[in-house]
Amino acid sequence: MRYLTAGESHGPQLTAIIEGVPSNLPFSVEAINEQLARRQKGYGRGRRMQIEKDQVKVLSGVRHGYTTGAPITLVVENRDWQHWQGIMSAEPVEGAEEKRRVSRPRPGHADLNGAIKYHQRDIRNILERASARETTIRVAVGAVARQLLAVFGIRLGGHVLQIGDVVAKPQEVSLDELIARTEESPVRCLDKEAEQRMMALIDKAKEEGDSLGGIVEVRVEGVPVGLGSHVQWDRKLDGRLAQAIMSIQAFKGVEIGIGFEAAGKPGSQVHDEIIWSEGKGYSRKTNNAGGLEGGMTTGMPIIVRGVMKPIPTLYKPLMSVDIDTKEPFAASIERSDSCAVPAASVVAEAVVAWEIARAMCEKFPSDSIDDMVENVNQYKAYTEKF
After folding, report:
1. CATH architecture for residues 2-385
2. H/E run at residue 167
3. pTM of the model
């Protein structure tokens, strides 16, 4: 499977074309809209979340509730487009060239690098595409992947581990409980005491015109052994997951399993001992590897974490240089959130779901979901006897 996205933050719409989804997969538009709504929630979001009520339109590849095997086209319209038509029009608009032009790049954003690379004297041509608004359509794509994974009993959930300097206490909970409790939390955190401190910290950052980052975690359960491969660098599933997480706007770090913690431990406390039991087959006593060894799934839950830096648009902007005059100025201000970490956990779920679904389709290539189910069932029977 593969997909491309297109669209700008204040353009008419965001678009994705997905290729390779097997035919006859039960397809729910409402399930996609539910994920889009989850992305728009979260303490610390800006005013745009009240303007936009994201809804997906399916333009191809689905008929009467089932995929056809043809490319799937998804569209999410930008409701704020009506206020930006003159500024963002594809056709020349008299007098609009200088309106909302940006010449002061923001530290921490794609603004300056992109303007230099693409020879753009109006930085808006960079920031519109670099905006995290693009994650909207990737959440929609991830929601399609979730529907494929659900056929095979593969489920996932995400939560927030840290916002600013507030760190949640570890919680040993089932995936069902994780999903239920994080949906009730304004910051998608399992630790109620940390939740309150996170919200207070977000309020403080907003008052000061500042922003906050944090750490999110995604857990995936029900994944069979052997997705991914050890034979080439670009087929290692842990590498793909790391790239997927790092592709999310503002993410600057990723770890799988205990991750960086492994550097301070001896091997005897890091590697997961292998066990076998009748009816279950092979398993591990622990899951320090986060469900992945040698670039392949072990059958244990996949655990992936990502680090999101504070959003670079600040209402108390840092200093920058005007690209026209070369004089120092306060950087440009675009409408923004003070903290988007809770929403980012939903985006992280989406990109992880896509990579697991893609790995499933590579391991069990099928034109129809019916053939794929049969292939997966045969493989599971094989692994239980191995």
Report:
1. 4-Layer Sandwich (3.60)
2. strand 166-167
3. 0.95
